[in-house]
């Protein structure tokens, strides 16, 4: 019923609960015929849940209405307390891309507002180049201090080989964005519509994929 109503996240919980209950029954029963039927049912539920929990959003060039709340809010349930952000470009490589640091700040603001109760954010990014490194460190340090005023700890690590971009929440959801957090176009001016409200900011073309890690097959 939940699948038919497109309430996929709720049906994921039901599938998982059903699988867990059947696994308990399999362990408790000695009837091999029943065990076989239960295992078949488990396979069916696993198939359905695996098939339902890859959601993809295609953001077209110049599209609007894709602020961070639009993309992430449905995954930020009240149990989310820890977040991992892996993005190599949370830095100021040059003037045109300096908004990546502001984008990360905006993402953190969304986490602080809730409804989740985030206590720890882990950021893995790469060092800026040349003279931009001191500005990067200063900006990230300021974000770290500001978050601490809200009871949130920001852990920052750097990698010279990081390439993939993904965001993970400790409720099992993982979101991959082709362009990372920096999928917005540069605003036309400091006083133009869309400068403050990301829902009104035109986007660059990218793809967003959401997975639930409990239903992601490991190679």
UniProtKB/TrEMBL annotation:
<protein>
    <submittedName>
        <fullName>MITD1 protein</fullName>
    </submittedName>
</protein>
<dbReference type="InterPro" id="IPR038113">
    <property type="entry name" value="MITD1_C_sf"/>
</dbReference>
<dbReference type="InterPro" id="IPR052817">
    <property type="entry name" value="MIT_domain_contain_protein1"/>
</dbReference>
<dbReference type="GO" id="GO:0030496">
    <property type="term" value="C:midbody"/>
</dbReference>
<dbReference type="InterPro" id="IPR036181">
    <property type="entry name" value="MIT_dom_sf"/>
</dbReference>
<feature type="domain" description="MITD1 C-terminal phospholipase D-like">
    <location>
        <begin position="65"/>
        <end position="212"/>
    </location>
</feature>
<dbReference type="GO" id="GO:0061952">
    <property type="term" value="P:midbody abscission"/>
</dbReference>
<dbReference type="InterPro" id="IPR032341">
    <property type="entry name" value="MITD1_C"/>
</dbReference>
<dbReference type="InterPro" id="IPR007330">
    <property type="entry name" value="MIT_dom"/>
</dbReference>
<dbReference type="Pfam" id="PF04212">
    <property type="entry name" value="MIT"/>
</dbReference>
<dbReference type="Pfam" id="PF16565">
    <property type="entry name" value="MIT_C"/>
</dbReference>
<feature type="domain" description="MIT">
    <location>
        <begin position="1"/>
        <end position="45"/>
    </location>
</feature>
């Amino acid at each position: 019923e939940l699948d038919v109503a497109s309430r996929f996240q709720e049906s994921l919980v039901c599938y998982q609960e059903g699988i867990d209950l059947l696994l308990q029954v399999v362990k408790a029963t000695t009837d091999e015929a029943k065990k076989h039927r239960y295992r078949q049912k488990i396979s069916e539920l696993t198939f359905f849940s695996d098939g339902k929990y890859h959601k993809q959003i295609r953001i077209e060039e110049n599209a609007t209405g894709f602020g961070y709340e639009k993309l992430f809010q449905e995954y930020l349930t009240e149990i989310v307390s820890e977040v991992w952000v892996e993005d190599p470009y949370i830095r100021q490589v040059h003037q045109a891309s300096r908004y990546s640091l502001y984008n990360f700040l905006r993402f953190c603001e969304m986490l602080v507002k809730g409804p989740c109760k985030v206590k720890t954010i882990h950021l893995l990014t790469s060092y800026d180049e040349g003279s931009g490194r001191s500005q990067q460190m200063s900006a990230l340090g300021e974000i770290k201090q500001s978050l601490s005023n809200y009871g949130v700890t920001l852990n920052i690590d750097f990698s010279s080989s990081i390439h993939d971009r993904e965001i993970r929440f400790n409720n099992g959801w993982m979101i991959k964005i082709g362009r990372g957090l920096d999928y917005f176009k540069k605003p036309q001016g400091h006083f133009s519509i869309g400068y403050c409200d990301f829902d009104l900011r035109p986007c660059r073309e990218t793809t967003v994929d959401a997975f639930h890690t409990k239903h992601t097959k490991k190679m």
